[in-house]
Design goal:
Blueprint (H helix, E strand, L loop, with lengths): L16 E2 L9 E4 L7 E2 L2 H15 L15 E3 L4 E4 L4 E4 L8 E6 L1 E3 L8 H15 L3 E2 L18 E4 L3 E7 L2 E6 L5 H9 L4 H4 L1 E6 L13 E9 L10 H20 L5 E8 L11 H4 L6 H18 L1 H25 L2 H4 L3 E7 L1 H11 L3 H19 L4 H31 L10 E7 L3 H7 L19 E8 L23 E2 L30 H4 L32 H17 L49 E3 L8 H7 L8 H26 L1
Parallel strand pairs: 14-15, 14-16, 16-17, 17-18, 18-20, 19-20
Antiparallel strand pairs: 1-9, 2-3, 2-7, 4-5, 5-6, 6-7, 8-13, 10-11, 11-12, 12-13
Protein name: DDHD1 Phospholipase
Pfam family, one: DDHD
Organism: Machaerirhynchus nigripectus
Length: about 675
């Protein structure tokens, strides 16, 4: 028999319906996270949970009194599963200690449509069916407001532990609290002349406000985003999961507002790789003085990570840990979504802090051992040229040098032979579409590895397009850990401001690819060297952390140079020490080898160290000869009210819940999808 149409939001229920058991589509399942209120599952999920629940109840195939085994139900866009027997839900792609309870809603509170607790609900439902099953529902859903329930006698009543339920008619059911209500509430209701029914009673509805249908279903995922943290996750393993959840929820809001017409969907998956590693056990933790633990935890999350990562003991463990977790998640996702790869699903990575450096190294296969070998080789060559030595010593050294060269050649040939017979599996099982860095120190690492600005405006200079289609570097202007990448590709970009990320609610923002580069304010800094020198000493890209930039915009950083907890001045000081060798072009005329092209890959020699100063135009701006193919540095607009001290501390972690960033990420991911559909449509024409 076809079920009579149940009431829908705003639609009345048919008249003269007969009381019968609730249909699967009238029941609604809920879940509760972080002890907040119950949230309804969407129709598609609720209906499938209810069918599993009914299969479980019927004991299909189980022995006498033995519950049937029911497959877990996949819910919430495939991120979670529900175990109906234990009434719990748990995530599929990551581990979580706290289980998420689920509950079956049959009776609901008027107005909020929150479900009554299951025990009470079951008792009321049983009583309702015993008393009214088969009876006609006289009233239309729309008319019931017109008849006041006041003064109507209850035709049936049920006593519960702390409250009781009165039926004033089949369709007018109220829940009353038996706890003595507060005096104030009583006097107010008496004064206003409310009678018993409408004052302390709560109206109940049987069946959810909206029918569950399988059509109420999430769109297919067309793009997955892996969210990668730095290493400072030992203390709080759940943080990346919470951060990703914030980013996912924020992206959902943006999707609903700006991309609801698209049938595709971007999914965010946390890559929690740190807790599986042993590293130093808890040695570092045990040597941390107790008093400074709180502050140290904050510092550790960035400073300690960098120490771990530069330690030859742990670097490989970290790289392998992240690489394996990325591949595990991708394989798991594809096995659960077989059509993802068939339909050309894409993968992007969002990394935070040191996570950017590790992700970069996995993608490019960068290895410090190779760099070390090159330096050793260079040292040997120099040693042969420089110092005075006896004929015998020189002869032996030359022999050793030749033997080492020969050894290297044999190793190379062996390596080539191996490579031709065994094709090494790629490090990652997927191509990276976009690599979004947030609050990233990557530029400093690259600079310290000898990467210097080149002459072409291509991203290939630091990350080949064959490995990753697009590199985007996002930072908050006061983030003490973030550095710019563009000046590592083209030097004069240190005088061009990063692209400003649009505010979430900007109406018709200019597309990023149409935004023209704007120059930083070229005012001289009071702290800089005397004029004679400053013209030739174009600032090294890497000495300027994001905060030590030329002032521009109405940004708070205008207030003072070393304002942000001294981070800017520290940056400048460190930068000055580290990069003094590369910052002065006039001081080292013997390094003027700008004619030679730096070889690609890891072997970038610092040949372009002494770039001559760029020509200044009469307006005081630089005249750039080359432009970047695509902009890479994108800066969040600062709020005007943030205190600058507050902002230095929180800016490094403020990325997760930013609507501006969520819109930025989705803009780039959806743009590619749209461009490709348009292209394939053109191809078919």
């Amino acid at each position: 028999t076809a079920l009579p149409e149940r009431r829908r939001p705003g639609g009345g229920r048919p008249r003269y319906e007969v009381v019968r058991e609730l249909g699967a589509e009238e029941v609604r399942w809920f879940y509760r996270e972080d002890r907040k209120t119950w949230k309804p599952f969407i129709g598609y999920d609720s209906l499938r949970i209810e069918l599993a629940f009914r299969a479980l109840g019927s004991g299909g195939g189980g022995g006498a009194g033995e519950p049937a085994a029911v497959e877990p139900v996949c819910v919430r866009s495939g991120l979670y599963e529900v175990d109906v027997a234990s009434a719990e839900s748990y995530p599929v792609y990551w581990n979580q200690t706290e289980k998420i309870p689920v509950m079956r809603g049959q009776w609901f509170i008027d107005g909020t449509w929150q479900p009554l607790e299951e025990e009470e609900s079951n008792l009321i439902e049983q009583e309702h069916l015993n008393r009214f099953k088969g009876q006609q529902l006289q009233e239309s859903f729309d008319m019931e407001i017109s008849k006041p329930v006041d003064g109507k006698e209850a035709i049936h009543s049920l006593k519960l532990s702390r409250n009781h339920v009165d039926w004033h008619s089949v369709d007018e059911v109220y829940l009353y609290s038996d706890a003595t209500t507060s005096k104030i509430a009583r006097t107010v209701t008496q004064k206003l002349g409310f009678s018993k029914a409408s004052s302390s009673g709560t109206r109940l509805h049987r069946g959810y406000v909206e029918e569950a249908t399988l059509e109420d279903k999430p769109p297919q995922t067309s793009h997955i985003v892996f969210v990668v943290h730095g290493i400072g996750q030992k203390m709080d393993q759940g943080r990346i999961i919470k951060n990703t959840a914030m980013m996912r929820d924020t992206a959902r809001k943006v999707e609903e507002k700006y991309f609801s017409n698209l049938a595709t969907h971007v999914e965010f998956l946390p890559v929690e790789w740190r807790s599986k590693l042993t590293l130093d056990g808890d040695t570092v933790d045990s040597i941390t003085p107790d008093k400074v633990r709180g502050l140290r935890d904050m510092l550790n999350s960035s400073a300690m990570d960098i120490m771990y990562y530069t330690s030859p003991l742990y670097r490989d463990e970290l790289v392998k840990g992240l690489q394996q977790e990325l591949n595990r998640l991708y394989s798991l996702f594809c096995s659960r979504n077989p059509e993802f790869e068939e339909k050309g699903g894409k993968v992007s990575i969002v990394s935070h802090s040191l996570g950017c450096v590790i992700t970069y190294d996995i993608m490019t296969g960068w290895n410090p051992v190779r760099l070390y070998e090159q330096l050793l080789q260079k040292e040997e060559e120099e040693e042969l040229e420089e110092r005075w030595m006896s004929y015998e010593e020189q002869r032996l050294l030359e022999e050793l040098y030749i033997t080492k060269q020969r050894l290297r050649e044999i190793e190379e040939r062996l390596h080539e032979l191996k490579a031709s017979t065994i094709s090494k599996p790629p490090v990652l099982k997927f191509k990276v579409e976009n690599f979004f860095c947030m609050g990233s120190p990557l530029a400093v690492f690259l600079a310290l590895r000898g990467i210097r600005p080149g002459t072409s405006g291509s991203q290939d200079h630091i990350l080949p397009r064959t490995i990753c289609n697009r590199l985007l570097n996002i930072f908050h202007p006061t983030d003490p850990v973030a550095y710019r990448l563009e000046p590592l590709i083209l030097k004069h970009y240190s005088n061009i401001s990063p692209v400003q990320i649009h505010w979430y609610n900007t109406a018709n923002p200019l597309p990023y690819e149409h935004m023209k580069p704007s120059f930083l304010n070229p005012t001289k800094e009071p702290t800089s060297a005397p004029d004679t020198e400053s013209a030739s000493a174009a600032p090294s890209p890497t000495t300027s952390p994001v905060m030590v930039r030329r002032h521009y915009g109405e940004s708070i950083t205008n207030i003072g140079k070393a304002s942000i907890l001294g981070a800017a001045s520290i940056g400048k000081g460190l930068g000055g020490m580290l990069f003094s060798r590369f910052g002065r072009s006039s001081a080292t005329p013997q390094t003027m080898e700008t004619g030679k092209e730096a070889p690609e890959g890891d072997e970038k020699k610092a040949t372009t160290v002494g770039t001559p100063p760029l020509p200044h135009s009469s307006s005081g701006f630089l005249e750039p000869t080359v432009e970047l193919e695509h902009r890479i540095d994108f800066e969040l607009r600062e709020g005007l009210v943030e205190s600058r001290y507050w902002s230095a501390v929180t800016s490094h972690t403020a990325y997760w819940s930013s609507l501006d960033i969520a819109l930025f990420l989705l803009t780039f991911m959806y743009k590619q999808d749209q461009e490709e559909t348009e292209k394939s449509n053109l191809d078919t024409i």
